Amino acid sequence: MRDPGLPSLDQLRVFIAVIDHGGFAHAARALHRTQSVISYTIANLEEQLNIALLDRSRRKPTLTEAGKALLADARAVSAKVDDMRARAKALGAGLEAEVCLVVDVMFPMCRLVTVLEAFRREYPTVSLRLHTEALGAVTQMVLDGACQLGVSGMPVAMPDTIERQLAGHVAMMPVCAPHHPLAAIEGVVPTAVLREHLQLVVTDRSPLTQGQDFGVLGRANWRLADLHSKHALLRGGLGWGSMPEAMIADDLAQGRLVRLRGQDGDSLQYPLFVIHRTDDQLGPAASWLKHQFLELDYSLPHGAY
Asked: Do residues 174 and 182 lie in contact, with contact meaning Cβ atoms separated by under 8 Å?
């Protein structure tokens, strides 16, 4: 038995049309061809594949078992080609093939999911790379050209090549575990007392803020590589520290963490800035993302993270 040949895209699409439109005559009308051309095309496809795709013993041709299996392949090939053509058209019009986005670890994840769901609907042909970093590392990735767009947290010294726009704020709250010594203090906790207890801090891996501390009070502190590690250690009672309020709302409600009232208050507003390089013009997809972050409602309900 000889090996199957190589069918053409046109043959596959005629095959799909015959099934979708219910026969040769209907497919011919849909494709603006004669019925004889449709029949000839299907016969050639069967010859190429060395297998019968349609049972013609009935008035209306029906799929053979082999035809049922190969129809799914034909649809997949046709869809892939359509996707390729759509991507090529978009690229030819100036649309990016990929957007790289970096966001601060404090950014509320539920809001990020909402934005990226809309992005996928708006730009289905554009790939996305997403990074999460802390403090100056967000700016560093944009500055280095690794990402076109960033949502940065605490302001750092911005080079002239970076444009920054305030997008909103995230509420941060100092907390500790209920069995931590600080939890036993009623009312305002003096700063001097906070300094005597181990503080958990998310570290910054960027040279832009090397040697700088943001909100570090504890004489003893542990530097952690990610926010989720900090969250786990806080719940374990290993120290105190500030967390995004929305991320710990359930912990507060369930008594796994308690809120601390410092002399500067029991919460602070952590700013979020949309940043990009001024000498690298954003494409349509990245510009759309930038607008979404600037228009986003950052007032979060409890538990929405």
From this structure: no
Give the global pTM. 0.64
Comparing 297 with 206, the larger pLDDT belongs to 297
Q: Which residue has the tokens 């078992």?
A: 65
Average pLDDT over residues 230-257: 93
Q: Which two tokens stand for residue 112?
A: 């990020």
d(CA 23, CA 38): 10
pLDDT in tens, 52-73: 888 888 778 888 888 888 898 8
Note the residue count of the chain.
305
Structure tokens at 89: 């058209």
| Bridge-based pairing state of the strands 162-176 and 258-259 | antiparallel
Q: Where are the alpha helices (DSSP H) in the chain?
A: 9-21, 24-31, 35-49, 65-92, 109-122, 136-143, 191-195, 227-235, 245-254, 284-295
Q: Which among 267, 259, 250, 266 is positioned nearest to 178, based on CA atoms?
A: 259
Distance between CA 48 and CA 197 in Å, rounded? Answer: 77
Distance of CA 102 to the CA centre of its chain: 10
Range 171-181 burial, b when 16+ CB lie within 10 A, else e = bbbbbbbeebe
pLDDT in tens, 23-61: 888 888 988 899 888 888 988 888 888 888 888 887 788
Work out the burial of residue 297: count CB atoms within 10 Å of its CB; fewer than 13 is exposed, 13-18 middle, 19 or more buried. exposed
